[in-house]
Write a structure and sequence with these properties.
By secondary structure, the protein is of the alpha/beta class. The protein has one domain: Peptidyl-tRNA hydrolase (Rossmann fold), CATH 3.40.50. The protein is built from six helices and seven strands; from the N terminus they run βαβββαββαβααα. A seven-stranded mixed β-sheet has the order 2-3-4-1-5-7-6, with helices on both faces. Strand 2 and strand 3 form a beta hairpin. It is globular. It catalyses: an N-acyl-L-alpha-aminoacyl-tRNA + H2O = an N-acyl-L-amino acid + a tRNA + H(+).
Length: 194
């Protein structure tokens, strides 16, 4: 039997996005969409938490999990993330952040621990608030903007009709990657995905 990468206590999973219905279908919100899929897997219901996030608690892949969607805007995601990590006494190494990734083609999911933020303001905020980059990331590819479109505009646009057809499968694959990280750890998950 494989042991989870974490102390079997608990894992904090952060699904990044911007709050409110205006942003719900944006590419930038794919992390929050994956959080919804994960919570549904254990019939979790999101409740407001004083740290500034909506939180669902349950069990996934044999571990206790806290799935959270910060209610702050993306570039302020660090405050709620660090607040939840403190509240639930979860070290940064047991935090998994799910986010959109411009440097990967659509539908591609990759996992890593630490490293740079690639210009992603949500990750920059989390690294600063946690005081380390040594947390796990599930990177959900959204591709590069077409032509000369500004990446900031691109991530704040809704997925196209064609992309939305693939999106349910993409979200399930990203959720599977999160569960794999918990169940078998980083290296085995990377070997399977990469």
């Amino acid at each position: 039997m494989t042991t989870p990468f974490v102390t079997p206590d608990q894992v904090l999973i952060i699904g990044l996005g911007n709050p409110g219905p205006a942003y719900a279908g944006n590419r930038h919100n794919i992390g929050a969409m994956v959080a919804d899929v994960l919570a549904a897997r254990f019939s979790g219901r999101f409740k407001s938490h004083k740290a500034g996030a909506d939180v669902a608690e349950g069990r996934l892949a044999g571990a206790r999990v806290v799935v959270a969607k910060p209610r702050s805007y993306m570039n302020l995601s660090g405050g709620p993330t660090a607040g939840l990590a403190r509240f639930f006494k979860i070290p940064p190494t047991d935090v998994i952040v799910v986010h959109d990734e411009l440097d990967l083609p659509p539908s591609v999911v990759r996992v890593k621990q630490g490293g740079g933020e690639g210009g992603h303001n949500g990750l920059k905020s989390i690294s600063a608030a946690l005081g380390t980059k040594d947390y796990l990331r599930v990177r959900c590819g959204i591709g590069r903007p077409p032509g000369r479109m500004d990446p900031a505009d691109y991530v704040l646009r809704d997925f196209t009709a064609a992309e939305r057809k693939e999106l349910p499968v993409d979200l399930e694959n990203a959720a599977d990657a999160v569960e794999s990280l918990i169940r078998v750890g980083l290296l085995d998950t990377q070997n399977r995905l990469h």
